[in-house]
């Protein structure tokens, strides 16, 4: 995406995500096309989601997976808490009946 979230916006979205459960779980096969399709659909419906990442050997690998997830889904970084990634993508105008998250 063209912009980054401000620290205030990330904090706001992290608070909203606290009560959410992961809607997508990345398996041992890693970030496959089907995972990206599931993430894209979940973002289209919810805007803010949690994704559970697989166990990896180091924090650097986990951050690399998170970076790839962000790039592949064209979403914005909110937080990476252990193995749970929180990502946000503003909803398009294709679902006008669903409320949109209003960022501060």
UniProtKB/TrEMBL annotation:
**Sorted alphabetically, which keywords does the UniProt record give?**
RNA-binding
One GO MF term attached to the UniProt entry: RNA binding
Against SUPFAM superfamilies, the record matches this protein to: YhbY-like
Protein origin, superkingdom: Bacteria
Database matches in InterPro entries: RNA-binding_CRM (IPR001890), RNA-binding_domain (IPR051925), YhbY-like_sf (IPR035920)
Domain CRM residue range list? 3-100
What is this protein's record name?
CRM domain-containing protein
What organism is listed for this UniProt entry? Plesiocystis pacifica SIR-1
What taxonomic classification does the UniProt entry list for its organism?
Answer: Bacteria, Pseudomonadati, Myxococcota, Polyangia, Nannocystales
